[in-house]
Amino acid sequence: MDKKSDLKAEMDFMDLLRKPSKLFGYSYIYFIVILGGLGYLYVDNLTVIGKNSVSPVVLKDSSAYLQDIALQSPRNLPPVDVMIVSVSTPELMKKGKELFKANCSSCHGDNGEGSGSASVTLNPKPRNFHSLQGWTNGSKISQIYKTLQEGITKNGMASFSYLPPADRFALIHFVRSFTTGHPVDTPQDLQGLETAYQLSKGSNSPGQVPIQIAEKNIVAESSPDVTWITGLAGSIVSGSGNSGEELFVRLTRDKRKALTALVQGGTSTTVGQFIKIVSADPVQIGFRAEVAQLSPAQWTALFQYVNGLRARKG
Ligand code: HEC
After folding, report:
1. CA 32 vs CA 27, 37, 39, 43: distances in Å
2. Does residue 148 belong to any structural domain of this protein?
3. How many angstroms separate the alpha carbon of residue 237 from the centre of ligand 1?
4. Exposure pattern of 262-300 as b/e (b: 16+ CB <10 Å)?
5. Whose CA is nearest to atom 32 of ligand 1?
6. pLDDT tens per residue, range 52-71
């Protein structure tokens, strides 16, 4: 082997391509080990990498936080003169403060900053009454009146239309007292209030039942027993010729009550027990007091009739 062919053998790149290990020698083993190590680290930490390290902000539907409406009997609301109640007085302010505490603080906070206990999850936040900026309807008396009348339900502000107009004006003055510089109503604005809501005519406010109670009533009234009793009571009329039935019709003030006590309760098994139960407090269970004057034969007829009804129930 001469020197020339020696050099040629060393510079033979094709040979390098054929056997790449000649280029790196055995150093490729290091690369494989390092790559393997990185791969292992990656796989080992997949759960951590896969987790979103920023927890998502949960936006709540604030409409769910509206309180149920108050139980209220129907009433006539006295008329108010807009021009008079739109002027703040110490009495209105005092009244407004009390009403605010009772109806608004839970969301708007005692100090009107919009940070009441129920506000935490509300989006948007309840209005901060210390700021003049960003009001949805506006902070004129007429605009706040509209807010209280209609609510801004899409944003979680309830309607307080069940409050008497005079109370709403008290609230408005109190709400506006948290800061100064509110826009002032023009006489036209106030006249507009009068036109829109006919405040000088007074208003009739219908009775209202909180939804929770209404739901319970509906369920109670439609329970199978109550439906059955109501149907039965309706079907019992005089004129059938059955002496027991005639007595029942004549001697009950409230058939449903009597049936509920006697048929549904299902207690008395003898005439004696029956007489005892009914005459203990007849009026309380829907009978007339005269029931106490029945003859033994009449008691028996009544007892048998009621027992028959109970059997119908099965
Ligand atoms: C259930 C929570 C809640 C209660 C209770 C509540 N508010 Fe609000 N209120 C809000 C929210 C939320 C906003 C914000 C609405 C918006 O930005 O449009 C708001 C906004 C307002 C505004 C500003 C409206 C505007 O134009 O931006 C007024 C005025 C107001 N409330 C008055 C009251 C008064 C007075 C009461 C009590 C009688 C009351 N609120 C009770 C949640 C509430």
Report:
1. 9, 8, 10, 16
2. yes
3. 56
4. bbeeeebeebeebbebbeeebeebbbeeebeebeeebbb
5. 148
6. 666 666 666 666 556 677 77
Q: Ligand 1 mean position to 168 CA, how many Å?
A: 13
Full residue range of the structural domain in which residue 233 is found:
223-313
How far, in Å, is the centroid of ligand 1 from the Cα of 193? 19
Assigned domain for 210 exists: no
Q: Is the CB of 157 under 6 A from ligand 1?
A: yes
Both 155 and 100 in a single domain? Answer: yes
The number of distinct structural domains making up the chain is 3
What single DSSP character describes residue 152? Answer: B
Q: Which atom of ligand 1 is nearest to the CA of 137?
A: 26
Tell which atom from ligand 1 comes closest to the C-alpha of 100: 37
Q: Please write the tens of the pLDDT for every residue from 144-164.
A: 999 999 889 888 888 888 788
Asked whether residue 94 is assigned to any structural domain, the reply reads yes
For residue 147, which of 157, 156, 134, 133 has the smallest C-alpha distance? 157
Q: Judge if the beta carbon of residue 251 lies within 6 A of ligand 1.
A: no
